[in-house]
Write a structure and sequence with these properties.
The complex is a heterodimer of chains A (about 290) and B (about 190). The model of chain A has no long low-confidence stretch (mean pLDDT about 95). Chain A is α/β, with parallel strands linked by helices and about 290 residues long. Classes of the chains: A alpha/beta (about 290), B mainly alpha (about 190).
Chain lengths: ~290, ~190
Amino acid sequence: MKYYSYFPGCSAESTASPLGISTPPTAKALDMDLIELDDWNCCGSTPYGSVNKLEAISMALRNLALAEKTGLDLVTSCSNCYVILYEANAHFKESVALREQVNEALAAGNLTYQGGVRVRHLAEVLYNDIGPEAIKAKVSKSLDGLKVASYYGCQLVRPNVEFDDPESPHSLDDLVTSLGAEAISWPLKSRCCGSSLIMSEQDVALGLVSKLLSSAQGNGAQCIITPCPLCQINLDAYQSKVNGKFKTNYDLPVLFPTQLIGIALGISPAELGLNRNIVSPMKVLAPYL
Amino acid sequence: MSSTMVKASTVAAVSFVDEVRSIPGGESIYSCIQCGVCTGSCPTASRWDHPPRQAIAMVRAGLREELLSSNSMWFCASCYTCTVRCPRAIKPADIMHVLEVLAIKDGLSTKRSKTPVMYKTFVDSAKSNGRVYEVGMMLKLFLKTNPFAALKMAPVGLSLLLHKRLPLRPSRIKAREQLKAILDKAGALGGAK
């Protein structure tokens, strides 16, 4: 058993609940113990860092101050939380002045942070700590014949480029292949979906989502997987809006990697929250359930 | 053009670029060689009043109010393609976030984009609950910007609700007082240096 401090992030409790639901059972089946960080708070996300930097970094680092007490790596399943927590940690370590300011702020809440937490993305942990070979060995229902587009989104592979290639990543494709499925080749696998601009500049974001769906389907995908809550919502919940705006008829299920892996490991659809995906994946997945 | 050149040589020009450099993410702006890889890589650049390369040039030219009141940086979706491609490692996306901070601080953020209001609404929600309550946030956003847009969004909201992805009550942390004390202190310290 491998132990981690677990940071679900706000969307895993709400708009990305299929991620929040499918992560614990899939992790458990892979001998990972994700211990939820007690009373974690919102990472601040991109908006806070665009309103007030010191407040944003202090908000993010309250979580790392709590995680530091556990002595475990902090793993988040959300790509946006990952970048926010990772970058706040990096800024903290780089600047002596910032360290002093953040700890002055944290002290107001009787907390302190030394900079000792390693922030990690769940997809990176699945790939590096568990690995495609070990996952393959645990597959009870091979996804033989299923054509999957791995959509990395942005923030799993950028700006931190240590894990995978920022423009031509392969880690999720390797995980897909380990399940017996086929990872289709497509050129837009780490291009932007528009993220939260879907709320404020919807026409821009829908245009980007449309290109992604077109490329995935055009290259033969029967479904898409993405580790990012924002990407999943944009491609799944807004797929009907794309169809309306661009006169298309996409019916492309968009799953979280933990859902697809869970199916191959024999975990039930209910435990994986498959009924919460807006574009139903049940028809495409029927041969494997 | 001549007024631009005059502005560029004033003291204010120096302070805008130094202001940007003083905030985490803006440190390396002097290294920009104006190659344009950022603009060429940006998925939304066609919508910016001043696309990324130009925005960075304007910081260095001291065109503070013109840039901060534009819609430019509000179209940054934080995809970081510019950042990983930049040959001078100046982190253009982070610079855009710094410009957003300065625009909000000085009340210059444009009304032509709904992104500034969305960001502020998000932050209010995150601060008060310790977690973001997306339903409340979205309703407030629509009320503040365009209530009629809520009607167009109803089908998406309804399908999220029917798929149990829109909880009707906010999730709150226990230590809200502690978080408030931390954020109040951070706010009082006056911004990251």
